[in-house]
Design a protein that fits this description.
Elements (H helix, E strand, L loop, with lengths): L47 H53 L4 E3 L4 E12 L6 H13 L7 E5 L14 H6 L5 E5 L2 H13 L10 E12 L4
Antiparallel strand pairs: 1-2, 2-5, 3-4
Length: 225
């Protein structure tokens, strides 16, 4: 591989004039015809001046890229700070102040309509928390909410046994197969159930469920028209 930073002599015509070649446009005289100074063909050497220009351009482009990266990182940091400040105001300070005022919504002197809504989301523990998942399923069943549990039964079959996939689990076990059973609850379904239970005054076992429960603020401008 040629070292373009110390390129040798350019390809020259019979009269000694330096010229560039293009694999798609072979040179037939001493005139440079290539539109691309760097299309040197398979056995030609690049022109030193062209290489110098390329390295100068590369230097400028890398400097621009470096400055762009620095600017992007700085803007990302500022964006994160803005998000943190917004979250602090909307999710903590405003809801806490309205709670002290015993209000759920109001309109400020600046014409901003403020309302606070309780947001509850829930999900099962991760797969690594086997005991907690088992207890969560038991809690759902004991409370009469086992219908939200989604069961997936899987058994690995050899090729040519597609018809056997439709057989019952008990039948599979009786035939010497060991099915794998996986239980899960859709997080949206579980969230809706938890919201319903909370509204009914039921106690939610937060030690075995992932529950996100907090008040969030919605702001809108009052229409003065």
């Amino acid at each position: 591989m040629r070292d373009l930073s110390s390129a040798g002599d350019a390809l020259r015509s019979s009269d000694g004039a330096a010229r560039f070649t293009s694999m798609s446009e072979p040179v037939t005289d001493g005139t440079a015809v290539s539109e691309n100074d760097f299309d040197f063909g398979s056995d030609a050497d690049p022109d030193g001046a062209a290489v110098a220009r390329a390295f100068a351009e590369l230097d400028q482009l890398t400097l621009q890229a470096e400055r762009a990266t620095t600017r992007r990182k700085r803007m990302e940091e500022e964006l994160q700070k803005a998000k943190d400040a917004e979250r602090e105001l909307l999710e903590r300070r405003i809801p806490e102040l309205l709670a002290q005022m015993r209000l759920d919504k109001c309109t400020t002197a600046s014409g901003i309509e403020v309302s606070v809504k309780r947001e509850i989301r829930a999900s099962l523990p991760g797969m690594e928390r086997v005991d907690d998942r088992t207890r969560a399923f038991a809690w759902l069943i004991d409370g009469g909410n086992g219908g939200v549990i989604k069961n997936t039964v899987r058994v690995d079959l050899d090729r040519g046994h597609d018809a056997r996939a439709t057989e019952l689990v008990a039948d599979l076990r009786a035939r010497g197969f060991e099915p794998q059973q996986f239980k899960d609850v859709n997080h949206q379904t579980l969230s809706a159930l938890v919201r319903e239970l909370v509204a009914a005054g039921k106690i939610i076992p937060r030690d075995i469920l992932n529950v996100f429960d907090q008040k969030t603020t919605k702001l809108s401008r009052k229409d003065n028209s």
